[in-house]
Amino acid sequence: MSNPIISPAVGALLVGSGLAVVLAVPYVAAQYRRYGRLGFWRLVGNVALLIYVIALFSYTLMPFPESTQVVRCMPAQLDPFRFLSDIAAGQAAADGRLLRNTAFLQVAFNVLLFMPLGVLLRGLARRGAIVATLTGFAASLLIELTQLTGLWGVYSCAYRVFDVDDLIANTGGALLGSLIALPVFAFSGPASERVARPVTAGRRLVGMVVDVFIIGAAGFVLTLGIRTPVYLSGGELDAIPSALSDATGLWIPLALQLLSVLATGATLGEHVVALRAVTGPVPAPLARPIRFLAGIGGYGLLLAAEFPGAGVVTALLVLASIVAVFVGDRRGLACAVAGMRVVDNVPAPVSAG
């Protein structure tokens, strides 16, 4: 039997982690375009926010009834602060022990459930107690109304209790979380907006990781696209031509990288981290194909190669590419071979008049 406290948290962690992987590339792109860097604590905070939102949904609205015709409709509780009398009445049954008083524990859980919202608002958005209180109230009201309306008409009536005391406790939890987080973030200034930043080794490495991720993700999606109809129709997956599997799994994603390099000089991963390529002494029509073959293109071709030692050569190329971003002006191995370099892609300021 699933634990009603632990199971939603575990589910939120798993689903949130999966969504974080799916949203990784657009998130990295947004961060580099806004701030010019990928802040570690901002990344942790945003992943935490994603998991928290899913957990909040799980705890407050799930499990759903099996049928849209709800067997037991739940009446609304509209008496403010009734939890005080419920706690007082429950003390006798709990032998005077507050931590065994179910009414108290319910209120405490509702407060704790919304405290992370106040913390995250102060840490990520640099918003104070007033915004946390209003946001907590709005979020709690949305949840309570969703319960009251049976998921906005999906179910025949309210399958969970609309409780004004939950609204009070949740709002108080968001306020309390903001106040608790105040000492931690009191001396943290607002997150700096996008300004020109140097090309760092970390930024180059993130771009390389994104390049490999894009090839893998695109290959997975395309392969799934051709395998799913075959599976659903009852066909044999082994009957799919190997040439088609190779094309969707590697060649088409690699072709997308080739088009990006030929058209702009930069890989897709470099565009994600807001870098652009600058051609050196070698003309662009020659430099860009060389850059592709010495970098992500060569990596992709080696993945498909079947000659003896292909794995060792691939590993050496990856190692050399990583080491090269720590040398000189961070141009990296592929750009160095092609006589190119990458620079920060910050639009030039528009002069007045």
From TrEMBL:
Coiled coil: none annotated. Residues 50-182 form the VanZ-like domain. Keywords: Membrane, Transmembrane, Transmembrane helix. The chain crosses the membrane at residues 6-28, 40-62, 103-121, 128-155, 167-187, 208-230, 250-274, 286-304, 310-328. It comes from the Bacteria. The keyword Transmembrane applies. InterPro entries: Teicoplanin_resist-assoc, VanZ-like. This is VanZ family protein.
